[in-house]
Structures are given as C-alpha cells and as structure tokens.
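Entry 14. Structure prediction run on the chain below.
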Amino acid sequence: MSPTDFAALAAYISPGLIAFLLALSLLVWLYVHSAAQLRNSRQQRLEELQESLRIYGRLAGCLQTATQNGFNNSEKQYQNGLIHALQEAKAAPYLTPHLQEQVQASLRECDTFRRELLLKSLEREMNKLIEERRLVLLESHAPGWGTALWKLLRPAAGPLALAGIVWLVTRLVMELIASSHVDVSLPDTAQSASWLIGCAWMRFVSGLIALLYVYRLMTLRRQNDLDVTASHFPTSLLCLVIAAVALFQWIGPEASPYILAVQLVLFLIGFRLTRGRSRSDRPYVGHPGLIKADASQHQDLHAADKDKTADSSLAEEHIRS
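Output returned:
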C-alpha cells in the first residue's frame, strides 16, 4: 500500500472511530487481564488447599501413631516428630481459629485425651479441604453449564466498571453544562441552579457507590465452609441492596439526597452485619462449656467401653458354662 493510500485511509477514518477502537482495545485488554488474574487466583487457591492437606495429613499421622502406640521415655523421636508437626500446623493456610486453639493446647500439654480430640478435629477439617479441592478441580476442568457461563461473565467486571465510570462522568459533565446555562440573574433561578448542581454531584456519588458494590458483588468468591471470617451472605445482600437503591435515581434529581443517605446508612450497617464473631463469643480451650462437653463425651466413651467389656465377659462366662 502506497503512502497516498495510507493518507486516504487516515482521512476516511474519523477521530470518533479511532477513539472507539482504542476504547474497545482497552476493554478487551482489561477482560483478558481479569481472566488471567482469576485463573491465577484459582491455581493459588488449589495450591493452598494442597499445602494444608499435606500439613494436616502429617500431623494426623503423628497423632494416630502416638494414640495407637502411646509415649514412653524410649520413644523421644515420636515426641519430637509430633512437636514439629504441631508447630508446622500453625502455618497451614486454612488453619481455623478453633483448630489453632487445639494445637496451642496440645503444645502445652499433649495427653491422650487432647490427642484424640485434635485428631477428630483434623479429620473433620481434612474432609472439608478434600471436598473443597474436588469442587475447585471440578470448576476448573469440568464446569457445569451455569458455572461455565459465570466464568465467562465474571472477568467482565473490570471492563463494565470502567464503562460505568465513563458513563457517570459523562452524565455529570452534561448536567453541569446544563446547569451553567441557567440564567442566575434572578434569585429563584440562582437557588435552583445551585440545587441542580448539588443534585448532579450527589447522583454521581450515588452511582459511583452502586457501581463499586456491583463490582464487589461480581468479584466476590463463592461461599464455602472453609471461610473463617463472616459469612458472604450479608455481604452479598448488602451489595445488592446498595446497588438496587441507586436505580431510584430515575425518579428525578429531587430523590438524589435521600438515595445517597440510604446508601450511606446501609454502608454503616454493613460494619455491624458483616463482622466476624468476637473472640469472647468463641469457646476457647479451657472454656467451662467446652470442658463440660469434652468431659461428657469422654465419659460416654468410657461408659461405652465398660459396657462392651462387661458384655464380652458375660459372653465368655456363658460359653464356659
């Protein structure tokens, strides 16, 4: 193609078309970048699950060996191995607060009863991790119809957020320009113009808040039993309500202050609803209720063993007679 043809092509292409192509390229790049980040996050999550399973499996093996064989003065290697496994368990990525308290208690005093309780807790957490790993692998390699569609839509959160911000800024500029054309020579007109400018800014802030919470809702990870923080349900519900309230802006600019006030109130309520359980609300190792429950469980197991022993002795006497 000759330089003349390039010049003719450049003259044919309008600046608006060039801007549209550049914006489209930016949106596509954002989509690809978001998809790559989600894929890396999923892979990192799988690695953390595998690392936690490896650490828990090693500790469970040491506990099971100690429970079956018992400790004596000649088996110091088992004690050292158990101590190392307990210390390593504190670095597990998916260590829960309850399991951490049990590990700390076992480091202080590792008797038979604490080893049995810790082994049961480890087996329960390992089953959760195994199920979560299965779901992550299924989501990555064999997703369902809805999951596959969501995987295609979720990376679009970034481009949609950018397009929404551009639309909000454009609407704000147009409203400010329209307000500047109002004749402010009259007192009532000046007051009306100031009110319109304030409403325009409040609509912009309200729309921006709604847009940010929609982005938060789209990027929120799926809820599972491994989360040690507050549940995702209040967070998702608040994000949805805050974003839905902004739709009432179509009523008119007069509703903007009330809509923004409702969004701010919901934002403050979120600190109350989405916080995790306080340390005083969780039973700690040595808590009276926890000790009572553990003691009753231990007594039940001991009574069951005595009943089994009595039944076996009666059966032997009956056979002898």
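Residues 294-321 form one domain.
Filed with the rest of this week's runs.
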